[in-house]
Design brief:
The structure is a single chain. By secondary structure, the protein is of the alpha/beta class. The chain has one domain: Class I glutamine amidotransferase (GATase) domain (Rossmann fold, 3-Layer(aba) Sandwich), CATH 3.40.50. It is built from 5 helices and 11 strands; from the N terminus they run E-H-E-E-H-E-H-E-E-E-E-H-E-E-E-H. The strands form 2 sheets. It has a 9-stranded mixed β-sheet, sandwiched between helices. It is globular. The two termini are about 15 Å apart.
């Protein structure tokens, strides 16, 4: 059974939802506290949502300096799959592991609702079991989810097939309707939607499963 590390910072609040989602999809989750300095035993990592360090300064700005982030970077550099969800996405951009930044939503409103997301590439660890242009219903829950980057970076993201997910109906003003991106190698992915909140068959929320089943199915070479 694949071991999935779920990184917990002070202020993280989606770790148990993430643990439940991983278990329902057949993985073995393990909570990883922010002072951990080695992640070699893990098969994949998830940086879940929340408000790391209270989102002081700006979301993810303090979490990037946590001891665990050196281990996360080493894990990623060795080919390990890393998924950042919402605040986890913000942490990855602040740490320079993904380009661009997440700024305040257009209209300066907190958004909490289910939206339609389109899969733009299947080459990443979290979309490999999906189909190109597949549409997913996933919840969003953020105030700073408006993705932005400079024009050169946007061109590279497009040309290098690094836009992973797009909003069908852009809810927050994100540039090019971007809901998720990956790094050059494709093994580090940041997404704003919360797939861990869409793995409950009884509630009819199932589309998040494909994200976690893809992650669990990924073979790594680190």
């Amino acid at each position: 059974m694949r071991r999935i590390g779920v990184v917990v910072f002070p202020g993280t609040n989606c770790e148990f939802d993430t643990v439940t989602a991983i278990e329902r999809c057949g993985g073995q989750p393990e909570l990883v506290w922010h002072d951990r300095r080695s992640l070699a035993a893990m098969d994949a990592l998830v940086l879940p949502g929340g408000f790391s360090y209270g989102d002081y300064l700006r979301p993810g700005a303090i979490a990037r300096f946590s001891p665990v982030m050196s281990a996360v970077r080493s894990f990623a550099d060795s080919g390990g799959p890393v998924l950042g969800i919402c605040n986890g996405f913000q942490v990855l951009t602040e740490a320079g592991m993904l380009p661009g930044a997440l700024q305040k939503n257009i209209g300066l409103k907190f958004i909490c609702r289910t939206v339609t997301i389109r899969v733009e590439t299947t080459r990443t660890p979290v979309t490999r079991k999906a189909m190109q242009s597949m549409e997913l219903s996933l919840p969003i829950n953020h105030f700073e989810g408006n993705y932005t980057c400079d024009s050169n970076t946007l061109e590279r993201l497009r040309n290098e097939e690094r836009i992973v997910l797009r909003y069908v109906d852009n809810p927050n003003g994100s540039m090019d309707s971007i809901a998720g991106i990956c790094n050059e190698a494709g093994n580090v992915v940041g997404i704003m939607p919360h797939p861990e909140r869409a793995v409950d068959h009884l509630l009819g929320l199932e589309d998040g499963e494909i994200i976690f089943r893809s992650l669990l199915d990924t073979t790594i070479g680190h």
